[in-house]
Structure formats: structure tokens, C-alpha cells
Amino acid sequence: MSSFKEFKIKWGMAIDLDKCTGCGACMVACQAENNIAPQPDASNKLKSLNWLVVYELTNGKPFPEHEVAYLPRPCMQCGKPSCVSVCPVIATEKNEEGGIVSQIYPRCIGCRYCMASCPYHARYFNWFDPIWPEGMDKTLTPDVSVRPRGVVEKCSFCHHRFMQAKDKARVEGRDPNALNDGDYITSCTEACPNGAIVFGDVNNPAHKVHELVKSKYAFRLLERLGTDPQVYYVSRREWVRRLGDNYLENEKVKG
Amino acid sequence: MALDRRGFLKFIGGATAGILATPVVWKSLDDVSIWSQNWSWIPRNIDGANSYVPTVSKLCPSGVGVRVRLVDGRPVRVLTNNDHPLGGGLSSIAAAEVQLLYSPSRMKRPLKRTADGAYVGITWEEAETMLVEGLKKAKGGDKLAVVSGDETGTINELFTALAAEMGSKSCFLMPGEAQPAAKAWELMGGEGQVGYDIEKSDYVLAIGANVLETWGPVIRNRHAFRVGRPHGEAPAVRFAYAGPVQNNTASTADVWLAIRPGTEAVLALGLANLLIKAGAASPAADFAEFRALAARFTPEQVAAQTGVDAKRLAAVAQELAKAKRPLVIAGSEFGQGGGAAPVLAGLALNSLLGSMNREGGIRALPYARKVVPAAMDRKALLQNDLVAWLGKVASGKAAAPQAVVFYEANPVYALPQADAVKATLAMACDLVLPVPMGLERFDDVDTPYGCGQVVYALAVPALAPLVDARPAGDVVIGIAKKLGADLGVAAFADALKAKAEARGASFTEPSATNAHVSGAVLPVNGIALRPDVLSKAIDVKAPAFPVALAPVAKLNVGTSMTATPPFNTKTVRRWEIQGKELYVMMNGATAAKLGLRKHDRIELSNPAGKFTVRVNVFEGVMNDTVAVPAGHGHTAFDEFSKGKGENVMRLLAAGAEPGTGLSVWTSAGVNIAKA
């Protein structure tokens, strides 16, 4: 595998799956923030486009021993992103301080190698041009460009909010590379009433997420693939953690 | 001069070098790359200065406090407002509220129904003239009825005052949790509005009430959940949920007690029995009778009636007894039709636990005084039962109204036995008047049912109405004037100002929330547990159907007033809607018993109605129960909702609760046949 940069700042999430009720507010807040077009029929989940998807998890036991949990899945912003190494046109990179995997739409040629290589299904292809109902395009935010058909897109950790936070720090005479905890958070983090998502610099001890990812209950999805995701999940429920990776039947689950 | 081969090649080479040396090629390539990406049909971002307006959502039943982000005066986002007493996050409806301003199904002008049933646009002047003429015919003797879908607004005072001036007391709210609770609280002798102090509780048991998704001020509840269960730490507050479906609340609760639909009160009495046996008592005068009633609900009896696991029930009783500030919240699992019995039994449990009138328990919150002299106050309005009245009209026991005014209400979709409702009132409406949406108008939210404190929140317009809409309050005042009535307020804004003052709020200074919290509580003295009423009310016969019906309410599919907001189609689960077909849930054992497998097409039927759906096997459903997602099956609205799935209300028929007479529709059953 090609080598990847190490970063001083690493934006990441700790998502407490014991707090997520699966209400979907994060998915709606994400679409509104990132100018994702609505879909009249989104029942075919292979054809619906959403940077953040809430999956339903089950412990697989019959009633009444059944338990259910919900797992919000943004882009994992992998430390060793498999999408970056397969992109033939450098349309996706992991190059900027903060460790967010970029997606540069004008460069993307729509080959979808990245989608095939992403183990988290976090990337989506625009099969069609985005369409808003008449007049609804007036609600587009000025922060995120609209993507045409033929390109791949994915969660950017609301990168525009990162830029805005840095700009604000500069204006206030603070170091833009030393943002305080909470200066920059994603739209989904902000929207969740349960506080299931905590966002911050995983490398910065002053940020809450720094401690949370060290929890013995913290895990990452398909960790053993070596993708080194910057999104961590937390659950005290062993069966939830077990679903985070391909464990053998009798293998001990992490945490 | 002859051009030889060498000369020709030199010419070609020279010409090529010459062309490459000019900017033509490079400029053309650049232009091609720009033109090929210059898609005029892709919307462009429009930049501008940001501004933020703090307000409260009138669209979302949770009444969530929000901030609207505007760019150059254009609303682009609804954002959280963490300082707001009803804020702290977003609901999935409120998050889409800005986009709903441009909903394809939004009415753009007043509409009149013509003789052939089609609607044509008319001017406001024509509409108001029609309205005045229509109302004149309905003067005197309860000939006018008003149905409001707004449970918390001062607007109801204007509508009810207009009705009073017309000689009518037929004013109703659309059914919700507040009405049965008000009835229960009144029966117990409580004053004011019953409040639940979730924030300060250390053990919350929700019986039926879907406290983290649809019950009460949901975002406020969920903020309390957030604070009580710090990220990555052991929870400081335990949550238990009892209901027929492992819904959103049950998914994060520490305990899920699976019970049959409509048996909430029996479960509560079973818990009361266990608590009393363990030494709990209530200071209520009728405690001895209550104890005798509760004694009938032995764990075996409760297990037989509700289907609950007796060991789990005992464990919850122990946990409740051990908790320092336990709180029991009872209600209907889909937010309506539950009757007073569950709330009554739930409040009795609170009394046994010593949770009456203390922090982290039950609070009696004062109602605000009326600001429109002739209006019906909230307490009186909550006593009127719309479903019972419709039943009386249908059976000829009450006079059919000459005119009905519906305000933000969609009874044909949202009431039980929707088809019968439509027939009763000979709907559709003759006149449809657009009101500004919540983000376009002044309005208010006064202490939604479920709040543990008095909260008064002002809705402030973030923008001018995008369509030819007029504020309902001012239209009502104007119409009243034309009918020769003086409602005592010159403008709706004056009514809001007076209401704010009545709640001790002042909004003269710019505020980050436009909301006011008051610590005012009423004393809770001489509460009765009313075992006399309870013993009758719980005597509901189990439905004589092979399978019980459990509707499942979720906010992401919108309300009967919004249908599913455009963004929210993606939040509907895969096996909830496929194309236009609705999936219903049942556990594997039930499916096997009925000989069904996942994706099988079945017909659900009972005397109220029938429709065809497909089967999804989900183990988080009570035995012999089918869980039907609510909020689908719209016949109106737009491509995001219309014609998708089925409306579960068509399978629900209301009956009267013995002892209280309230309309109830939580104990329904269905026949299931392969379709």
C-alpha cells in the first residue's frame, strides 16, 4: 500500500450507538447543509444518494430477546483511504491538515473505482442531474457547490464549516490550526438532539473526542482492513461492537 | 512554383508550429473545458450575508426551538438553538422546514370549490366575502364548529371567541396526548396542566408514551436524555419503555417491556401492586380502594393480560422503588386515542413513588389567563372530544353543523375511520385559505403538554410569506368585525403580546431565543387516585381478532399537515416503503403462526377498513401483533408522499372509554389474509 501522510490535526467523530434512536434528523440536516437534492422515491436504497445513512442493526435474536440499534454512517475519512489510491485523476486526496478525504468534483471523471474500493459504501454516484422542486433551489446554501450527473460525491465532514472556523479564528487573531473544541462541528453533530455524535480533533487532548475514542467500548468499522478510519463508534453492547467487524464465531470482541 | 514533397512537409510543419505558438489552441481548449461543464440547468449557489432569526417551530409537533439561517434574506437552513428551552437539537421535520416553504403541494392563493368539485383560485376579498356569507348562515345555536390542529397557540382563543360570538361552543382540538391527560388530571382533582420534569429525574419509565420520538416536547425530552446519559460514560439516568413495538424510544432504553397494544393501564396497575406490596403508599384519600384494585393485578394476571414477562416487570418495579427521583410517563404509543386510563394509572404510580409535586416528578403548571375575553380557555377546549362529537353528528344525536372551520387540521387523513369522517362532514372544504407557514408568521407556543415547566416561546417571521397568504389571526379578527362582533383585540400581535405578558414574558429586547421560562407551579393537594374510574376504564374487551394492531408513529414522515417533507423520503427505512407498497412488521413467531414470510403480500382487514401491504419480519414486535408504520398513505400532497403506502388510521375505529366517555382507539385488531 502506498504511504499516506500523517497529520498533526485529525478531525474525527465518536458516535455513541447507545444514544442513537435512529430518528433521521442527522440525515435531513446533512442534505440541507450540503445541497443534496431530494428524491421523490428513495425506497431503492441502491439508487438513493445520501452522504450520511442511518443503518438498522439487530442482535439477531428472536422476540423477546431482540435488541435493535441504529448506526449513522458518514464517510470514515480513513487514515489509509483505499479510494485515494485507486483514483486515476487525483479527484480524491488526503492531503490537507485535518485529514479529511477530499472530493474534487470538476476533476472526477465518474469511473467509480473509488466506490468499488470503499468498504463502507460511503461514496455515491450521480446517475442523474440533481433536481429540486420549483423554487426549492433558492434554499441552497452558498457553502457547497451543486454536483452534476457523472461525478462521485461523499461526506466531507462539512469541510466548508472547517474553512469558516479557520477564517473566524484568523479574524479573531487566533491560530487557525489550534481551533477550540466546538469551533468546528459538522451539521449532523449539531442536529442530533441526543448528542450521539461528538466531533473534534482526535489528536488534541483539549478536545472531548480525544478521550472518547480511547474508551474500551470504542471501535471502528472493519478496523482490521487497515483503513484506519477517523470515525469511531462507542457501544457498551457487545453485540453491537461485534457487528463492527468480521469476527469469527468464537472470537473475542474488542472492548 | 511547384510544391515538392519536402516543401509541403516544411509548410505543414511551419503551419503547425505557427498555430501552436498562437493562443488560439489553448484558449479553445480552455473554452471547451469550461463550456462542457457549464450546465445551465444545474442550480447555482448564490452568496450573500448571513443573518439568523431565533424562533420556534410551529410545524413540528415537538415545538422545537430553532434558529433560521438566511443568506441575503433567503432562508437556507433551520439550525439548532441550544439556548432555547424547547431546543437542543433538531427533529427530522424541523430540519426540513425551510425547504417545506417551497413544497410543491403548498397552496399559493385562496381556492374555491366549484360545482364540479374542482378548485379555482380567487382573491382574498372574494374569499373573505364568501367566508362571511357562509358564517352568517351558521349563526346561533352551535351551527358553527371549529377544529384546530394547533394545541399550543393563542390563535385558538381567536377562533373560539369567534365561535362564541356566533353562539357556538363546538370548538375542538385534533386528538393528541394532551386531552386524555387533561381529563385524567381533572378526575384526580389536579389543577392546571400536568407537567413531567424529565430533566431532573433519575429513572424514567415510559408506558406507551414514545418520549424520545413523538410524545410531548420531544427535543426537550431528548435533550434531557442527552444530559442524563453523557457520551461514553455510564448513564446517570435510566430509561425503561413499555409498549408493543421496539420503537425509537425502546431502542435506546435500558429495558423494553413488551406488552400488547392498549394494555398500558393494566401494566401500570401491575407495577402499582408490586410497589404497594413492597411498602409504597400514597397520601391520597382513596388509597385503600386503589390498593384493593391494584391487588387484583397480580404478576400472573398482568402477564396474562398484557403479555409482559413477569420477571422483567418485577425488575422494573424494583428499579423504580430504588430510584431517588423516579418518573412514570404514560400515554398512547402513537400519540393519540389512548384514553384517560393509562395516564390515570401512570399518575397513580407517580403518587405511590412520591413523585407528585417534586423535582424530577410531576408538576402542576398553571394555565395562562385568556387574553381574548370571549374565548374558550385551554382547559375548556381540551375537554371537547372531536371524535365523540363526529360520532354523535353521524348518528344524528347532535345537530350537523352548518359551517366548519378547520385550522391547520387534516381530519380526513388523521382521524380514526377517515372515510366515515369524510362522509359525516360531507367534505371537502368549499373554501381553502392559505396561511403563512410557521417561519413566515408571528405565532406562539405556550407550554406544550409534557413540559415540566411553563415555557412560552414566540415564533418570529424569518421572511415575508412567499405566497398570497394572510395570517389566520388577523383574518379572524377582520371576519368577526364584518359579522358585527368585536373580539376585543385589534390585531393578532396584540393578543400575542398580551399572552406573553400573562406568562410574565417580555420580548421588547432582542433575544437569542424569543422564549421565556417560568418556575411557576401550582400546589398539588388532595389528589385522588380514582380507582372507581380506573376499574371501569380498564375493562376494555380484548379485540376479537387474531392479530392486534400497533400503529408506530415517527416524526420523520411528517405530520398530517406536512406529509413527508422532500428530504425525508431517504429517512424512511428500506422495509417500510418499497415503491408505493407499505411494509408492516411482525415477529418471526407470529409470521410462522400465520404461515407468512418476509415480502409476502397480505390484506389487513377489520370492520373499519382494509388494505394490502407486505410483510417485514422484525423481532421487536409483541407476539400476535402487527406493527403498522403511521404517517403514510396520503391521497393529497405531492410526489414525495402521495399514494405511497397506506394510512393506518383507516383500520382504527373509535369506541368510548368506560368510566370517562373519552374516545379511544388504541385497542384495535385485524384479520390477516394472504393477498
Description:
The complex is a heterodimer of chains A (255) and B (675). Chain A has helices at residues 25-33, 82-86, 113-117, 159-171, 187-191, 208-212, 238-242; strands at residues 11-16, 53-58, 68-73, 123-125, 152-154, 197-201, 218-219, 231-234. Chain A is α+β, with helices and mostly antiparallel strands. A 4-stranded mixed sheet of chain A has the order 6-1-8-7. Chain A has a two-stranded antiparallel sheet with strand order 2-3. Chain A is globular, with a radius of gyration of 18 Å. The two termini of chain A are 28 Å apart. Chain B is α/β, with parallel strands linked by helices. Chain B has 4 domains: 5-24 and 106-176 and 367-518, Rossmann fold, CATH 3.40.50; 50-101; 178-365 and 526-532, Dimethylsulfoxide Reductase, domain 2 (3-Layer(aba) Sandwich), CATH 3.40.228; 542-674, Barwin-like endoglucanases, CATH 2.40.40. Helices cover 30% and strands 19% of the residues of chain B. Chain B has 21 helices and 27 strands. In chain B, α9 packs across α12. Chains A and B meet through α1, β2, β3 and α6 of A and β3, α7, α8 and β20 of B.
Structure described in brief:
Chain A is an alpha+beta fold. Chain A has helices at about 25-35, 80-85, 115, 160-170, 185-190, 210, 240, and strands at about 10-15, 55-60, 70-75, 125, 150-155, 195-200, 220, 230-235.
Average of the residue pLDDT scores of chain A: 95
CATH class (first level) name of chain A: Alpha Beta
Using only CA atoms, what is the Rg of chain A?
Answer: 18 Å
Average pLDDT level of chain B: 94
Strand order of the largest sheet of chain B: 20-21-23-22-27-19-24
Output the CATH topology of the largest domain in chain B: Rossmann fold
Total tally of structural domains of chain B: 4
What is the terminal-to-terminal distance of chain A?
28 Å
The most extensive interface between chains reads: A-B, 74 and 79 residues
Number of strands of chain A: 8
The general outline of chain A is: globular
Major sheet of chain A: order of its strands?
6-1-8-7
Q: Summarize the amount of helix of chain B as a percent range.
A: 25-40%
- SS-based class of chain A: alpha+beta
- Radius of gyration computed on alpha carbons of chain B: 29 Å
Number of domains of chain A: 1
Q: In CATH terms, what is the fold-level topology of chain A? A: Alpha-Beta Plaits
Q: Spans of chain A of 5+ residues with little confidence (pLDDT < 50)?
A: none
